[in-house]
């Protein structure tokens, strides 16, 4: 599709020069790279906003439904190259910049990668924004503008060290501050009851009011027809209460304390995989972005739906607005919408409740019990007294209704009520306020229905549905892998950027030796590009003839990076002691661990310690190498995925809800080595069992072992003292202690806490499966045909498809 926003390189250059002059105040020749970069973003954003205004007018004129996607995280990544691709201007701009004596690559390198998310969940939200714009849906992100993103990870002595991510240090050229659209949000205070003529109502008195100020970032859809926006909120003081006396006394910090206390709300993003700690600031973040988002929706709705007589057409609310809640972080949407409709707009409860449940929908992302959000009632009540009253009322009515309908099933009530045991259960609140609940892969939705949310499923099976996750092929194949994209486009045209199911046409090339050999060349380029980055960031030199075996994702016990490094330790032992010669391989890891998640940080330290030993041992380092890429983020992910040949997706079956790096790697022609978990199950079905390597326990087997208590880690250890037993011993015998000591915590987890993640149980089937892949790699055409079958069948995992399903089944747009 060619739909360039710039008529020609000449036209672009003229406009771009003018933009540099007006924004930077310098001639193009005198501007530095960052200034040139920022001006280019401005030019693109300027064009994008013009499209947005046109879209907005059409939405109002056609009374089109808007979708608001509420998410505490949006991991958007660098935007410039993606927006140029989506606007059809990538080649024009590349060419023009070369003619101007610079390059797009050089200017793009100036772009920050905003760390406004932890990993998969935040990246999913960003892919959804891209796809909503592509599908022509009026879909808006609603999130938080954290002053500091997720920490930057550096490795010292093998350990993860966290550094502040000051992503706004140079400003952010894509955002526009909208102070005129600020919303006031109140915390604390006291609820007061009023009564007059037999009618009563409540008001909230006192408390601390803060100002939520929105910043808008354009979201440019592929094809250039639709531009939506992501609105992120920043907390600021409602009033300047600067203490001049304190300042004049030299107490500078005290003088502006009012400011720092408020701004703390939007200062940092909390890490997601350390369990919830009931931190009050987190609850404040959740309410701030919910209340601000709903306040802003209300303002627009009333402006567009007030009749001549001044009344508002509330019946239209669920017809014109869908609110989607990404996980339980926006769970207060229901209570807040109820509060606004009743307290501020004067609707009666039943009518308001009907609007709430017809508007809101919810996605569950996890089966981990420690990640199911709960808040102590006393904390909640003190911080949000009026919202808490509404939650109490929602819960009271839910119970009343329940007993009337299913009075004999008190077990189900105990499972599904919102308030229980002194706590507010946010997942239950989300489900009760929603008309739709979805999981994110078939097997995940099955597990929700069968186990985690079985109570709700029994009561209302119709509410449940599956929406298998997806990814942006434009970003993760089009932008990230130019050489493979060119090869694909030369074979089947570029229609796959618009409709990823066109990748099926690649099946005509499974036996085409010219195409298959060109795949080797493309992969080689990507491996060299990654190897150069790894050399620069870690000093480790990789052999580009070796297999690139990749596991890049957050560190978590259930994702089992430990199983992967055990494989490396075993292969190393066998090379050194038994003269084993495996397929030469580079084992590449990346990922952050939550700051407080000690176990996961120990696994990072183990990987780096193994790397230190292996990479420096001349008996092994011609055959295998280990690299840990620091500070995993969208930008280095875009270098890693295209270079991968083996995609490690090895979570304990039943634990990974979906995964999305499995999809990105599949699209980039890596072969999955995985368990039957999350979307791996669907990958296996689509690619065919011959084109994926599956190993290990199934969900049913894991459940059987757990419920029968028949798994004993020591049995596995004793059964194979030579290989597995040896690897376990090496955690504590000094073999890998050179960098920073032994690994007693990991050893205890396995041998004294009975290996909750079944690492020892799956060890042999895993290493065997890996060796089987190695045996195929020697026949590169066969390997490439398998890899191509993966790309060809990956189109289902386009987030465009996912979004079309949400639009049709849930949002009704
Ligand atoms: C896709 C992506 C993830 C998700 O990876 P999983 O392996 O599915 O957990 C995490 N972080 C980044 C930067 C990503 O792009």
How are the SSEs placed, and which strands pair?
Elements: H1 9-24, H2 33-62, E1 66-70, H3 80-86, H4 90-99, H5 104-108, H6 120-134, E2 138-144, E3 149-156, E4 159-165, E5 176-177, E6 183-187, E7 190-196, E8 199-205, E9 208-220, E10 227-237, H7 244-248, H8 252-255, H9 257-263, H10 280-305, H11 317-320, E11 321-326, H12 333-344, H13 349-359, E12 360-363, E13 374-376, H14 377-383, H15 385-406, H16 410-416, E14 419-420, E15 423-425, H17 426-432, E16 437-439, H18 442-452, H19 454-459, E17 464-466, H20 473-479, H21 482-492, H22 513-538, E18 547-552, H23 561-578, E19 585-590, H24 598-615, E20 624-629, H25 634-643, E21 646-649, H26 661-667, E22 671-674, H27 680-687, E23 693-694, H28 699-708, H29 713-719, H30 721-729, H31 744-751, H32 759-777, H33 780-792, H34 799-811
Helix pairs in contact: 1-2, 1-4, 3-20, 6-34, 10-12, 12-13, 12-15, 14-15, 21-22, 22-25, 22-33, 23-24, 23-30, 23-32, 29-30
This protein binds pyridoxal-5'-phosphate.
Pyridoxal-5'-phosphate binds at residues 119-120, 123, 553-554, 632-634, 637, 659-661, 664.
Summarize the structure.
The modification N6-(pyridoxal phosphate)lysine is found at residue 664. With 813 residues, the chain is an alpha/beta fold. It is 49% helix and 15% strand.
Unique ligands: pyridoxal-5'-phosphate
Distance between the termini: 25 Å
- Gross morphology is globular
**What is the CA-atom radius of gyration, in angstroms?**
27 Å
What is the β-strand count?
23
């Amino acid at each position: 599709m060619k739909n360039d926003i710039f008529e020609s390189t000449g036209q672009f250059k003229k406009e771009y020069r003018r933009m540099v002059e007006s924004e930077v105040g310098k001639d193009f020749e005198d501007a530095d790279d960052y200034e040139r970069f920022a001006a280019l973003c401005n030019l693109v954003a300027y064009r994008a906003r013009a499209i947005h205004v046109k879209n907005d007018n059409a939405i109002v004129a056609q009374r089109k439904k808007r979708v608001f996607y509420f998410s505490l995280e949006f991991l958007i990544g660098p935007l410039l190259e993606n927006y140029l691709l989506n606007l059809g201007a990538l080649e024009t701009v590349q060419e023009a910049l070369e003619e101007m004596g610079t390059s797009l690559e050089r200017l793009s390198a100036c772009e920050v990668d905003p760390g406004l998310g932890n990993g998969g969940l935040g990246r999913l939200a960003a892919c959804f924004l891209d796809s909503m714009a592509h599908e022509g849906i009026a879909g808006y992100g609603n999130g938080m503008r954290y002053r500091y993103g997720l920490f930057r990870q550096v490795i010292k002595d093998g350990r993860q060290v966290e550094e502040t991510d000051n992503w706004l240090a140079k400003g952010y050229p894509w955002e526009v501050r909208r102070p005129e659209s600020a919303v006031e949000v109140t915390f604390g205070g006291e609820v007061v009851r009023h009564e007059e003529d037999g009618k009563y109502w409540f008001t909230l008195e006192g408390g601390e009011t803060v100002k939520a100020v929105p910043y808008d970032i354009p979201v440019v859809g592929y094809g250039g027809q639709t531009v939506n926006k992501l609105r992120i909120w920043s907390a600021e003081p409602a009033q300047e209460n600067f203490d001049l006396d304190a300042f004049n006394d030299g107490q500078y910090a005290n003088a502006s304390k009012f400011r720092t206390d408020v701004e703390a709300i939007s200062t940092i993003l909390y890490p997601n995989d350390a369990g919830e700690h009931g931190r009050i600031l987190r609850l404040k973040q959740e309410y701030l972005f919910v209340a601000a988002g709903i306040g802003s929706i209300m303002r627009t709705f009333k402006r567009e739906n007030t009749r001549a007589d001044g009344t508002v057409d509330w019946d239209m609310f669920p017809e014109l607005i869908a609110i989607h809640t990404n996980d339980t972080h926006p769970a207060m949407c229901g209570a807040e919408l109820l509060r606004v409709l009743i307290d501020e707009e004067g609707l009666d409860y039943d009518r308001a409740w009907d609007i709430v449940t017809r508007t809101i929908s919810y996605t569950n992302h996890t089966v981990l019990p420690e990640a199911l959000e709960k808040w102590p009632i006393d904390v909640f009540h003190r911080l949000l007294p009026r919202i808490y009253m509404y939650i109490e009322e929602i819960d009271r009515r839910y119970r009343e209704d329940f007993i009337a309908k299913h009075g004999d099933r008190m077990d189900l009530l105990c499972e599904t009520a919102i308030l229980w045991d002194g706590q507010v259960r946010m997942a239950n609140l989300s489900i009760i306020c929603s008309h739709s609940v979805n999981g994110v892969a078939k097997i995940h939705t099955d597990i929700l229905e069968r186990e985690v949310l079985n109570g709700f499923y029994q009561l209302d099976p119709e509410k449940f549905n599956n929406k298998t996750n997806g990814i942006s092929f434009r970003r993760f194949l089009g932008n990230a892998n130019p050489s493979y994209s060119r090869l694909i486009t030369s074979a089947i045209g570029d229609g796959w950027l618009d409709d990823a199911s066109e990748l099926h046409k690649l099946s005509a090339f499974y036996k085409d030796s010219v195409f298959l050999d060109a795949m080797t060349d493309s992969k080689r380029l990507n491996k060299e590009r990654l190897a150069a980055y790894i050399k620069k960031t870690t000093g480790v030199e990789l052999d580009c003839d070796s297999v690139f075996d990749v596991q890049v994702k957050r560190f978590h016990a259930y994702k089992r990076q430990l199983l992967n490094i055990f494989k490396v330790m075993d292969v190393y032992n066998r090379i050194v002691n038994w003269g084993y010669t495996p397929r030469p391989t580079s084992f590449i890891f990346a990922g952050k661990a939550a700051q407080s998640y000690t176990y996961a940080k120990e696994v990072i330290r183990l990987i780096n310690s193994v790397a230190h030993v292996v990479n420096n041992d001349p008996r092994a380092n011609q055959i295998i190498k280990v690299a840990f890429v620091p500070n995993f983020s969208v930008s280095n992910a875009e270098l890693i995925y295209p270079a991968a040949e083996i995609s490690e997706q090895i979570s304990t079956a039943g634990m990974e809800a979906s995964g999305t790096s499995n999809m990105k790697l599949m699209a980039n022609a890596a072969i999955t080595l995985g368990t039957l978990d999350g979307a791996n199950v669907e990958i296996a079905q689509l690619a065919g069992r011959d084109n994926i390597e599956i190993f290990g326990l199934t969900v049913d087997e894991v459940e059987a072992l757990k419920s029968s208590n028949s798994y004993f880690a020591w049995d596995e250890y004793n059964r194979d003292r030579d290989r597995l037993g040896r690897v376990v011993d090496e955690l504590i015998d000094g073999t890998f202690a050179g960098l920073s000591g032994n690994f007693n915590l990991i050893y205890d987890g396995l041998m004294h806490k009975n290996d909750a993640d079944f690492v020892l149980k799956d060890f042999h089937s895993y290493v065997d499966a890996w060796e089987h892949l190695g045996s195929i790699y020697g026949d590169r055409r066969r390997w490439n045909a398998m890899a191509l079958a993966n790309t060809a069948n990956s189109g289902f995992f386009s987030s465009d498809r996912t979004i079309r399903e949400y639009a049709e089944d849930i949002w009704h747009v």
